[in-house]
Specification:
Layout lengths: L2 H12 L4 E4 L6 H12 L9 E4 L3 H14 L8 E4 L5 H10 L4 E4 L1 H9 L10 E4 L2 H6 L3 H9 L6 E6 L4 H10 L4 E4 L16
Parallel strand pairs: 1-6, 1-7, 2-4, 2-5, 3-4, 5-6
Helix pairs in contact: 1-2, 2-3, 5-7
Length: about 200
């Protein structure tokens, strides 16, 4: 396991807790929250039990693919992804026909689906905010507030971020109850062997 996985996974498996994970992109954060999330799902209940919010369509797709691959041998576990820029009608059909236990989404599309009465978040026990700093930088704060207002009060919030500006610290105190915190040194360089070229 990577350092963030080694520290976060046991913590997220052992108890219901709010959690704050600080680690750079590329350090394995998706597995750090994805594996504990899979373990916590009740596959006997066909309803959305956890949501993962991501700032961009590309990241949402990437997270959903990773969680699907992690849960390959977990029978009856549904994972789906919804995002803007794709036909909403197909997403509505999928969600109505087969509600997933884990739903990955971009904030705008999730609000659209809530407003259309397609999504019921009252059974959500876990909310993961991935790349939280990016979401706030992109102006999604109000959307996140709206989405959280549709979930139950005693849910667990797991927030992952590369940086921790004051605005995120404020939200942590607003949304989370005594979160357990794991920070992986940002001095640790990741993906050092990648070359960038352009034509």
């Amino acid at each position: 396991p990577t350092p963030i996985q080694e520290k976060a996974i046991p913590m997220l498996l052992e108890s219901a807790t709010d959690f704050l994970g600080l680690a750079q992109t590329g350090t394995g954060k998706t597995a750090a929250f994805g594996l504990p999330l899979i373990e916590q799902m009740d596959t006997d209940r066909n309803m959305v039990q956890s949501i993962v919010l991501a700032p961009t369509r590309e990241l949402a797709q990437q997270i959903a693919e990773a969680i699907k691959s992690f849960s390959k041998y977990r029978k009856f576990l549904g994972v789906d992804v919804v995002y803007g820029g794709a036909p909403i009608s197909a997403q509505i059909t999928r969600l109505k026909k087969n509600p997933p236990q884990i739903l990955v989404a971009t904030p705008g599309r999730m609000i659209d689906l809530i407003n259309r009465k397609v999504l019921n978040l009252s059974n959500v026990n876990f909310v993961v905010l991935d790349e939280a700093d990016e979401m706030l930088n992109m102006g999604f704060k109000e959307d996140i507030d709206t989405i959280l207002s549709f979930t139950q009060h005693d849910k667990n919030i797991w927030l992952f971020s590369a940086t921790m500006p004051a605005e995120i610290r404020d939200n942590v105190h607003r949304y989370m109850k005594e979160p357990r915190e794991v920070s992986v040194s940002s001095k640790e360089r990741v993906n050092t062997n990648i070359e960038h070229r352009f034509v």
